[in-house]
Design goal:
The structure holds 2 protein chains of 2 kinds.
Chain A lengths: L2 H16 L20 H15 L5 H6 L3 H11 L1
Chain B lengths: L3 H13 L3 E5 L8 H11 L5 E5 L5 E2 L2 E2 L13 E4 L3 H14 L3 E4 L9 H17 L2 E3 L5 E4 L6 E4 L7 E8 L2 H13 L4 E6 L8 H10 L5 E6 L5 H15 L3 E5 L13 H5 L2 H12 L2 E2 L3 H13 L7 E6 L2 H13 L3 E2 L4 H10 L10 E2 L6 H12 L6 E6 L7 H14 L4 E5 L6 H9 L8 H18 L14 H13 L4 E2 L1 H10 L7 E4 L2 H11 L3 E6 L12 E5 L2 H18 L7 E6 L5 E10 L3 E8 L2 H4 L4 E5 L4 H9 L18 H17 L5 E9 L6 E3 L2 E4 L1
Parallel strand pairs in B: 1-2, 1-5, 5-6, 6-7, 10-11, 10-12, 12-13, 13-14, 15-16, 15-17, 15-18, 18-19
Antiparallel strand pairs in B: 3-4, 8-9, 8-11, 20-30, 21-24, 22-23, 22-24, 25-26, 25-28, 26-27, 28-29, 28-30
Classes of the chains: A mainly alpha, B alpha/beta.
Chain lengths: ~80, ~700
């Protein structure tokens, strides 16, 4: 899968979970610092990525992912 | 160049007295730390502007919120970071960009969670250094300033405490909330209330110095879980007490003695970390408390009442039993039960019934009401022989408790002498106690606590405050010789040395040792004995043999050449039979020491406080009773004196009951020299001189056995 496509789908999940418009989500946005995700939403993001990409992410490693570009890179290695 | 210490002192001003505060990472979710902090700041009526910073919210508690701290147009004095630790560094970086120098990091998830947290803590320390930021925390509850001109509750505590003159510092945030609750019930007020968490940047030492200069603070309380730099803490405490006269009361938790068990020497095994901590605090003038109750019992005395002129107390009670209990407790605390003047006795006789006891303790009798308490208290407080009064009350059917409390309040306002109270019981006396505490009159459930508090106040003002610390310097030491000896020993890979080499080191530092020579043959031993003069002692020297006597390695009182020869052979024969594998370095031929009083001296190195010196009586006193004293090097004249006179067996040295008065000055001299040796040579981990013989006054002392561990 192309990196661009992963990024688009990651942003879609983030927008759904955090209830944000696509335009509000920068490519390097940090889920907590820039987008205001709380701890529960961080878990929801991991679940959302797993469902969107049909992958299983190691919980500890997945929670280390804090940004859009971090998620894109990590998911890229899982596909 | 500005040091971090200077920077902290400057930046702390804005931590406690900010005109604008940003809460970075704030949320709208009620019941969360970020929300509660915003709410507490707003509720505390801060005399300044408040800026919530939140990535998502437009308003929090009806106050406009900003996405980033750098979006705030106005200057910000203080930032409180409440973001999770994973991103708190990003917030701190932005604070630096915004020019904010004073920060509190509330977030947990740092060194207390292990490796990942340690990395994060290093990261925020680096950012703080880059921007000259000073921060309190991380992993803390926050700070409170009750100054009416400021009114800052930058914490997630449940309530703002009453204003007062106690400055409270705590490494534990959870304990802070418990203390606030405890204090609220007793109307104990605070000037500043600070939870400093992991103390990654601003430490308890920086905060002590800040409180030293803080006009609203008269008493400094500190709850500490770890002493990072004991020497710096001691220096700071001495400095703060000397400069401000403010008492410092500390609870240091973790009273375990782990580490002591693994020690290789007497000194090591006796000097657990807690004993050393006790010694260090005592030396620095810090009043150590065992628990919160004791700490506040004492703090009330310091904060509420004037210091006593001396230790003579009067006791007023309405019941015999509690009067006796209080008398016992006072005497135990070395307080003096005042003898009233004739005038006082006359006054008491005039105002009290004939059945009353008009001597100290004054018993106003069970049916006493407020008028009788008033008359007795007024009479004794005016007596020049009274330095303080303890008022005891037990609730009897006719006792008008609240009125009596009110009478005491009135008299306290008119006198410069301290008055402490103990209304014994709980339910019936509650409203009376409340009157006393609201009026800043120390109250104690138990007379014992009252007497302890009075004693602390008296001791601090008369024996600690104003005492100058002047470390004693020693002369006539040969540092080069010891340098060479130790370097040779360490190069050869040896970890401990015995009497023959240890005494060379001690001798070079002017500590009296016996003449002696290490010999490798019978002929050498005879020559050495002839030179030293008979009688001599002969001892096996081997790094492998710890207990020389047990393996037949010692022969004492050797009187001539033949006996030297016999002893030499006997020692070798016994040792080769009992410890055939032992590597023998030779036989130490030495003067026979004359009998004296045996004392033990030692050195240990503590991870927090550095070199520590030990003194005690030898033999059974050290083995069974562990009657020893420790002091952290360097020592003042007072420290050494206190060390010697402070052991229970001191009377054996001071000529009590017809015993010989011993040369205490010579022991003191050895203590100073040992202290210097410990400071000069950090390679020495432990050192035992056991025993050192002390002779009658003017005849000195001499080391008869010693060992050193590296």
């Amino acid at each position: 899968m192309e990196k661009q496509e992963i990024q688009t789908r990651v942003k879609k999940v983030v927008g759904q979970v955090l209830k944000l418009e696509d335009s509000e989500i920068a490519d390097d946005a940090n889920f907590i610092f820039d987008l205001g995700a709380d701890s529960m939403q961080s878990l929801e993001l991991v679940a959302g990525f797993e469902e969107e990409f049909d992958i299983e992410m190691d919980q500890d490693s997945a929670l280390e992912i804090q940004s859009i570009d971090g998620a894109v890179d990590f998911i890229g290695t899982c596909l | 160049m500005t040091t971090r210490f200077d920077l902290h002192q400057e930046n702390l001003k804005k931590i406690f007295c900010p005109e604008s505060v940003a809460i970075v990472g704030a949320t709208k979710a009620k019941g969360t730390v970020p929300y509660d902090i915003v709410e507490n700041i707003l509720k505390s009526d801060l005399n300044g502007s408040v800026y919530p910073v939140s990535p998502r919210e437009k308003h929090i508690c009806s106050v406009k919120a900003y996405k980033y701290v750098i979006d705030i147009q106005d200057p910000v004095d203080l930032a409180i970071i409440v973001f999770p630790s994973a991103v708190a560094h990003m917030a701190l970086e932005q604070c630096g960009q915004k020019g904010i120098k004073s920060v509190i990091i509330i977030s947990a998830g740092y060194k207390e969670i292990g490796e990942k947290g340690i990395e994060r803590e290093e990261q925020i320390k680096e950012i703080a250094r880059k921007y000259d930021i000073s921060f309190i925390g991380p992993n803390c509850l926050g700070v409170i300033n009750t100054d009416p001109d400021v009114m800052l509750n930058a914490s997630f505590a449940r309530q703002m405490p009453e204003a007062g003159s106690i400055g409270f510092l705590s490494q534990s945030g959870a304990l802070c909330t418990a203390v606030l609750d405890y204090a609220q019930a007793k109307h104990i007020g605070f000037s500043k209330f600070i939870s400093f968490g992991n103390k990654a940047d601003i430490s308890e030492i920086d905060l002590m110095y800040y409180l030293m200069k803080d006009e609203k603070t008269q008493v400094i309380l500190l709850y500490l879980e770890e002493v990072t730099d004991g020497k710096a803490l001691m220096d700071a405490a001495r400095d703060v007490i000397a400069q401000s006269g403010k008492p410092i009361l500390i609870i240091k938790s973790g009273r375990t003695s782990e580490g002591a068990s693994a020690a290789a020497s007497h000194t090591g095994s006796l000097a657990g970390s807690d004993e050393i901590c006790n010694a260090a605090f005592e030396q620095a003038g810090i009043l150590r408390c065992d628990n919160i109750e004791e700490m506040f019992n004492k703090a009330m005395a310091f904060a509420y009442q004037p210091p006593p002129e001396s230790n003579r107390v009067a006791i007023i009670t309405n019941a015999g039993g509690p009067g006796v209990l209080t008398t016992d407790a006072a005497v135990k605390q070395k307080l003096e039960i005042a003898r009233f003047s004739e005038h006082t006795t006359k006054l008491l006789k005039r105002h009290l019934p004939s059945t009353a006891n008009i001597k100290n303790p004054v018993d106003v009798i069970g049916d006493a009401r407020a008028d009788r308490y008033n008359a007795a208290l007024k009479a004794v407080i005016e007596d020049d022989a009274v330095d303080g009064v303890f008022v005891i009350l037990t609730p009897q059917s006719m006792t008008n408790i609240d009125s009596i409390a009110q009478e005491i309040v009135g008299i306290v306002k008119e006198t410069k002498k301290p008055i402490y109270t103990s209304f014994m019981g709980e339910a019936d006396v509650a409203s009376g106690i409340d009157i006393l505490l609201r009026n800043r009159i120390p109250h104690y459930i138990l007379p014992e606590s009252m007497c302890k508090a009075f004693e602390s106040d008296y001791r601090f003002h008369h024996k600690i405050k104003g005492k100058e610390f002047v470390p004693v310097n020693v002369s006539n030491i040969n540092r080069d010789v010891v340098e060479r000896l130790i370097s040779g020993i360490l190069q050869s890979g040896r970890k401990n040395i015995e009497e023959d080499e240890a005494e060379l080191i001690l001798g070079a530092y002017g500590i009296p040792v016996l003449k002696g020579k290490l010999t490798g043959t019978e002929e050498e031993a005879i020559r050495a004995a002839n030179n030293i003069g008979y009688p001599v002692a002969m001892k096996i020297m081997s790094d492998d043999i710890i207990h020389k006597f047990d393996v037949g390695g010692v022969v004492l009182d050797v009187k001539d050449e033949k006996e030297v020869k016999d002893a030499y052979q006997a020692i070798y024969k016994a040792v080769s039979k009992k410890m055939p594998e032992a590597e023998i370095r030779g036989i130490w031929v030495t003067e026979m020491a004359q009998k004296g009083e045996e004392v033990i001296l030692g050195i240990k190195r503590d991870p927090a406080f550095g070199p520590v010196v030990m003194f005690g009586l030898g033999g059974i006193f050290v083995e069974v009773f562990k009657d020893v004293k420790f002091k952290v090097a360097p020592l003042s004249e007072y420290d050494a004196q206190e060390m010697i006179t402070g052991i229970k067996g001191y009377k054996l040295l001071s000529g009590a009951r017809g015993r010989t008065l011993r040369d205490v000055d010579s022991i003191k001299n050895c203590i100073f020299r040992l202290s210097q040796l410990a400071i000069d040579f950090p390679q020495i981990k432990e050192l035992d001189i056991n025993p050192i013989m002390v002779y009658e006054e003017g005849h000195g002392c001499v080391v008869t056995d010693a060992k050193i561990m590296f």
